[in-house]
C-alpha cells in the first residue's frame, strides 16, 4: 500500500536485494481484477489463460527503446506473436492501389520480427515443457517497474507426472542498450530428473500473417536471408539481411551455466538457427541455472564481419559485467527515472498501478532510442507496421520532455536526421521547406491513404511545436544549434508556402486533415492553423536567437517578417451564431450524426464509409478540444468551455488519442469527475484492452496520457512561452496526488490534496512558477498554496453508447 | 464536296450501288492531313504506318452498341490491341488497397477481349501475308459513315516477289445485333498462285498487359476457359466462360466461298481455336472470295447448349440474309440516322468530316445496346476498363435523346435494371434511395478511389436529369411507368436524405465531388446542388403525373412536399465581393494555381498530388460553367458571363469532357470564335489524338460534344421544362450550319447562315419553338428569322500553356 505522502521523503528505491530472488513474486494483492494483482510497483498475472497469451505478450513486453521483446515464454510456445524488434529495422513492402495517383508512396516499411534470442526450450525427461499439456500447478508472471525485469515462476507437472519448478527473469538493459539477458532456473521436484535445455537464436519464426493483404504477408513471411552463422564454446552468432530494404542484423548469444554435477553441452549454428544444448541429470533439491546474454546490432551500411564483431564485442562486455551487475544497473537506472517522473495518488490503488505501468512503458519506448523514433506501439508489437505518427511529438514527448528530457531530445534528433527526406517529400509534392511523413519508420512516407496521410500536414507543425517545447523546457543549446533551428526554419518555410493570404489579408491553410480523422481534407482546421502559427513564431524566435545558424540556412529578414505576418493573420473559424469555434471552416453547418443509429457500431470507421463520416458533425478524437489545451493561451476560458460543451458530445473517441486530451480540457473547465473518468479510459486502454487490439502492441501515446492527465489535467500545468504554471484541483475520487518534473536545471515535485498544493524544489536553481494565476519563486523552501474551490459543474452528455469506460468493479 | 444547303432537299442517301464494290475507296480528297483524306462521308487512311496501328484500330472500330470490333487487319498482325468486345461482358479483378476502408469495392469489373472472329489469315504460296514484310505497294482503309462498313484495299508484294490485291469489307450489323460479317477477296496479280485462307475464331489472344497492375494483368491474361468447341462443314462454334465473373460467351462462324475451280477446305474446332482452312490455286485475273459470318452471344445465366443454339440460330439467319442484304440493311439504317441527326456546315471541310465521324461513332456506341450501358469508350478499346461513367447521361444522351431517342431510352432502361444494386449500395453506405456507381459495367461500383468515386454523387443526379430530359423530349409513357418514375423517386430519396437543412433553413449537400476532379470532397458544389434540385423537382412532377406508380413505391404527399422544399432551399454559393458563383463553398477563397510553373506539366494529375490540386483554384474540366449551360434557367446572363470569365482562365481542360461544355457556354455569352476553337478541340480529340491515348479507345462523350456544340452552342438550343428554344449565331469561320432534331413526334431541321435562321418541320405535328426569345409555332411552312447581331466580345485569357488546340495547318 502506498503511503500517500511518501514522495516528500523518498528519494530512491535503492534496496535491490529483494529483486535478487527470481521467485520474488508477491502474494496476491488487492482485488485481483482483469487477472492482474493490484500492486503499486508490479504487474502480475497468475494462472494460465491461453486467450490472454497475445495480450500479455504486449503488456509484459520489455524494451529499452532500441530492442523490444514481447513477453513470450522462454519455451517458445504457446505463443501468438513471438516478437523481437530493433528500432529502425524494417522490410519494404509494395503498396498497392486500385487507382494510383501522383506522389503515392510505392512501398512502405514494416517492422520485422528479427532473430529471436528469448527462446530456451526445456525437455523434462522425454517430454517438452509446454503449458498447453500436463498440469500447471502454479504459474505467475510479473513485470516489475523498479527492477525493469519480467519474472516468471511456474510449477508444472508433465503429462507423465514429473514436476518441475521454473523460475526465470529477463531484462533488456537500459544501461547497455544492445544487450538482453535471461536467467533461467529449473528445479526437479520430488525426484532426480534428466533435463535438456536448448537455448536458441532463431530467425524467420512462423508468424500469424495478415490474410487480407498478400503483399504485407509476403514481406513478413521469412523476411530474413542468412548471411553468416557461426559458433564456438557457449557462444553463437547469426547474421541475416532483409530481402528488399537492404538492412543487416546480427544477433549473438553466450551462456553461463550452473549445474550440479556434469552436463553435456553442445552448440551449433546454421542458417536460421543457432543452438546451445545442455543435457544434465539434476538431483531433486538442486537447480539447473542458465544465464543467457544476447547482443543485437543492425546496420544499413556496415558489413557482415563488422556487424558480427560489434555484437560479439557487446556480448563480451555483457558477460564481463554479469547478470547481477546488469540487474543492479537496471535498478539504478529506474530509481533515477522514478525519482524524476513518479506520480503517486491516493484513493484508487488500481489506477496507481496503471499509472506506473504507463510511465514505465513510455520510458521503455523512449529511453535508449538514440536518434531513432518512438513508434506508436513502441517496440511491443507489430501493430501499425511499427510506424511512428504524430502521437510521438504530441503525446509522448510532452511527458518525456519534463521527465527524461534526453530521450525527448534524441527523438527530435531522429526527426532532424530525416529532414532531407522531408524536404525531398515537400519538393515532390510541390511545396517548400519540409513535409514530415504521416507514418514512417525511417523518414519515408508510408501512408497509402492520402486524405489522412499527406493532407495531415499538422504532423510537421507538431514536430516544430515539440522542438519549441523542448527548447523552452531544457535550454539545450547544442540541440538548438545542431537541429532545432533547422527543423523550425524548414517547417516554417513549408507552412508559409503552403498557406496563403486571402483577399482580406487572412492567412488560410486549406485542404488539410486535422487530428480528427472523421473529418478530412478541409479548410482552416483550427488545430492545424494554431499549431502552424506556433511553429512560425517559434521559428522567428529561434532565428533571432541563433542568427549564425539562420544565416547558414539562408533565412532573410523578409522571410522571418513574413512568417510573423502569416502567424498573426491566421484564420481561426468561429461560429458567431452558435458561439463556438469551428473545428474547421463550415464544420458547425454540417449535418448531425445519428448517434442513436450508430449505437454499438464502433469504431465507426469499420461500419461507415469515410465519405459519410467526413460530411457530418461526428468527431473521432479530440481536435478542437485538444487545441484548447495545447494552445490554451489563444482561447478565453469561456471559449474553452463552449468548445468542450459543443465537441465532447459529438466525439466518439474511436482513437486512443482522444480520452487523455479531453480529460485535460475537462479538468480545466471544471468537469473534474468527468476528467477522472476520461483519464481512466486512457490509462486502462491497454491493461483492460479497451480497443480489443492490445495483442498487436501497446498504445504508447494513450499511456503517456496518464502523465499528461495527472500533470496538465489535475495539476493544471501549462508551459506557454517557457512559463510553467499550475492550477491544481483534484477529482472527488482522489484524496491526494503528487507528480515530479524537470524544468531546465530544476527538479520539482508538486503534491496536491483537496485543499492545498505544495511545491518543492528537489534540486537545481530556484524557478518561477504560478499557482492558479499567482506567480511565485520556488527555491529551497516548499511553498504551500490553497486551492480555490469551485462549484461542481455538470458536464455535457457523452454520445449515446460512447460513455467513458468504467471499470466494472469500481463504483463511480 | 458538300452542297451547303442540300439539307433542305435531301432526304435519304438511298443509292447503295456505289457501296457494292469493295474497292470503292475514293481518290485523295482535300488536303490529306493527319494522314486522313478530307471527305465528308468517309474517313480514309492511306499507306502503312506501324506507329498508327493502335490509333487506327480505335478510329476504325465498328460497333452496334452490342458488339464492338477494333479496326484490326484480317490477317491478325501487325496489331496493338486485337479487341472484340461484347457490351456487358466482363471479368472480375481484385481491387487492392494500401489501406482499406469500409465500403471500398473488393473487386472491379474489366472488359475482356472475347473470341476474335475478325481473323482471316492468308498464305501466298508459302509466305504469310504480313504488312511488316515484303512491300506494300498500295494500302488504304476507309470507314464509311453511310454504309457503316470498314473497307480496305491492299496491293502487296511478298518478300519473294508475288503480288496480290486484297479487298475486304467488314460490318457489325445495326439491324441484326448479334452478327458480324466480313467479305474478303484475294486476287493474284501477274501469275497464278496457290493461296491458303485460314478463317479463325480465336479466344485468349495475347494482349499487351498493363505492367503496373499485376492483378489487372492477371484478370486480362487468358481470361476465358473453354467450355465447348465444335465444327461441321463450313461452320464452327466456341463457347467459353470467364474464371471469376461466371459469364459465358459463345461465338459461331460460317462461311461462303467463291473460288474459281477447286479448293480444299477443312475445318477444326478445339479449345481456344476454331479454323476453316481453304487452299486453292487461283488463276491470275480471278479472285478467291470468302464471306464470313460470325454470331456472338453471352449470358450470365443461360447454359452452354442454350448459348450455342442461340448463336447458331443467329448465324443461320445471317447466312440466309446474305452479305448483300446485310449491307443494304446497314445502309438503310444509316440513312435513317443521317436523316434525323446529320449536321452540315460550310467553311471547314475537315471539321465537317470530323463532325460526321463523331456522330457516327456515337451512334455505334449506343445504337443497339438494348438495356446495356454506353461505356466511356464505347466498344472501341479497353480504356477505363470498359466502364460507364456520368459521361453517358450528361454528354452522350443529350445527343441521342434528340436524334436516336430509342437508344437513349434503352440506356436508361439499363440504369433501371441496375437499380437494385444502386439501392444496395446506398444502404451499404448508410444512405436512403439509390446511389449509382461512379464507374461500372454491370451496376456494381468499381471505383477504388472514393473521393472521386463514391463522393461523386452527382452521377445519380445526372441519371435523374437524363430521365427528365428524355421524358420531356419523347413523352415515352411506357418508359415513365416502367422505369422513369422509380428512378426519379429513388434518386430523389437519396438526395433528400443525403443533404440536410442547416439552422437557417438552407439545404446543404456536403462532402461531395463535383464534375471538376481537381476539387474533391467539398461542400455545396453548385453543379451537384442544381442537378439534385432538378432531380428532386422532376421526381415531384413524375409522382404527380403517375400517382399509381408512386403509390406502389410508397411515396407519400409529405415526401414529395419535402423534396420540393429541399429543391427550393438549395444552397448555391455565391461570392458577393467577387461577383461570381463559387464552384463550391469557399472556392474563390482558395489559393491561386501557379500556371507559370505548371506550363508543360499537363495533365496536372500526373505531375501534382491530388492534395495540392484540390486546395487551389485550378479546375480540370468545366464544372460551374457546365452548370450555367445545363441549368441555364437558374442564372442571369450576367452571372453566366461572370462565371465564364472567372472559371475559363483557371480551367486546364485535362479532361476530354471540358472543351465541349465550355464551347456551349462561350457561344452563349458571345465568345463565338473561342467557342469554335473549343468545339474543334473536342471534335478532334480522337482524330488528332490530343490526349495521346486514342489507341485504348475513343472518347465517346467528347465526340457527342460535336453535336452539342453545334446544336446547343451555335444553335443555342435549350430545353428547359420541355420548351425547345434556339438562339443561333455562327462563329466567323462558318458560313452555314444546319442540324436536325427529333422532339416528341416532330422532326425538325434548323439551317443557320450569318444573318438568318430557317426552321423547317420535316414531319410530325406542329411544335412551339423560340428564336432568340421570340416564340413561334413551326408547322408545314418554314420559318426564317433574322439573327440579332452582337458586337464581338473579347474573351478572357486561357491559362498559359492551355490554349485551345489549333490544327497546325488551319489559320485561326
From TrEMBL, chains A, B:
A GO BP entry: carbohydrate metabolic process
Stretches assigned to the Glycoside hydrolase family 65 N-terminal domain: 47-299
Active site per UniProt: 517
Keyword list, A-Z: Glycosidase, Hydrolase
Domain of life, source organism: Bacteria
Domain Glycoside hydrolase family 65 C-terminal: start-end pairs: 717-778
Alphabetical list of InterPro entries matching this protein: 6-hairpin_glycosidase_sf, 6hp_glycosidase-like_sf, Gal_mutarotase_sf_dom, GH65_N, Glyco_hydro_65_C, Glyco_hydro_65_M, Glyco_hydro_65_N, Malt_Pase/Glycosyl_Hdrlase
Gene3D superfamilies on file: 1.50.10.10, Glycoside hydrolase, family 65, N-terminal domain, Maltose phosphorylase, domain 3
Record protein name field: Putative phosphorylase
